[in-house]
Specification:
Helix content: over 70%
Shape: globular
Order of helices and strands: HHHHHHHH
Radius of gyration: 20 Å
Distance between the termini: 47 Å
Number of strands: 0
Largest sheet: none
């Protein structure tokens, strides 16, 4: 058989009723990178709670979690509608994944020094990748060109705000929260405005699977933490109270999976 190199293929919308639509290995790899960033945020929250800075840790974790979650959401919904699995799509997905790793690298600095620079750089890298993908969709999906262009322009404008925030870091967590909430609100407005013209052709069962798989990977991180904690307990001598806590954590994770 001749070797087919699908370097660039038209980005036509996927059939929302396509049978047997399942998550791709590339999407699973993307989930794994996102979970690495989530795990870094959780580690920062853990240290804040251990240092008796509970409220500050929860607020900081929420600020960090939003860009990770929102970038994952945007890529997942785009891929459900326009994944054509050509080389350019794969390369842009890898660019977006590299942004998630950059964000993960800057989370510890943000928890300790409220330095948002690396997180902003990583988030902007992820968003630039998705802008390129939306421009591809606008080029080939004439029926939804206005929707795709609205996404591309809206996302680009909001990134200007994030860059400004990263370059002009305010003093104090309170002002940070206010400016961050403003940026988050603008991010959330982009799909609301874009989808008003004509909705993209996302696949319902595909998205259900995508959400479920991300939750399972995150729960897997929780099980790993429980396993490491149990190993520490056994290593220091058997403490049945702590062993009981570890067992209860397993029950809680299983109950969350069941839900």
């Amino acid at each position: 058989m001749p070797l087919r190199l699908n370097l660039i293929r038209p980005t036509h919308p996927r059939d929302p009723h396509e049978p047997h639509r399942a998550a791709t290995p590339l999407e699973l790899l993307f989930d794994l990178v996102s979970v690495i960033a989530i795990a870094s945020a959780v580690a920062g929250l853990h240290h804040s709670i251990a240092d008796d800075h509970v409220m500050q840790g929860v607020v900081t974790f929420s600020l960090v979690f939003f860009p990770i979650w929102w970038a994952w959401m945007n890529f997942t919904w785009y891929a459900s509608a326009y994944d054509n699995d050509d080389v350019l799509f794969r390369l842009m997905t890898m660019v977006i994944m590299s942004g998630a790793l950059i964000m993960a690298a800057g989370i510890t600095r943000f928890f300790h020094e409220l330095d948002l620079s690396l997180i902003v750089i990583g988030f902007v890298v992820m968003r630039v990748g998705i802008v390129v993908l939306w421009l591809r969709a606008a080029l080939h999906d004439r029926q939804r060109r206005q929707t795709a262009l609205t996404y591309a322009v809206g996302i680009s404008l909001v990134q200007c705000y994030w860059v400004w925030l990263g370059l002009n870091a305010p003093q104090g967590l309170g002002l940070y929260v206010s400016l961050f909430v403003l940026g988050a609100a603008m991010e959330l407005c982009v799909p609301v405005i874009a989808e008003r013209h004509l909705a993209t052709t996302w696949h319902r069962h595909h998205l259900i699977e995508r959400y479920g798989l991300l939750n399972i990977i995150v729960l897997g991180e929780t099980l790993l933490a429980g396993s490491l904690a149990l190993a520490e307990v056994i290593g220091d001598g058997t403490h049945w109270g702590l062993a009981y806590t570890a067992f209860c954590s397993l029950v809680i994770v299983f109950a969350m999976w069941w839900l």
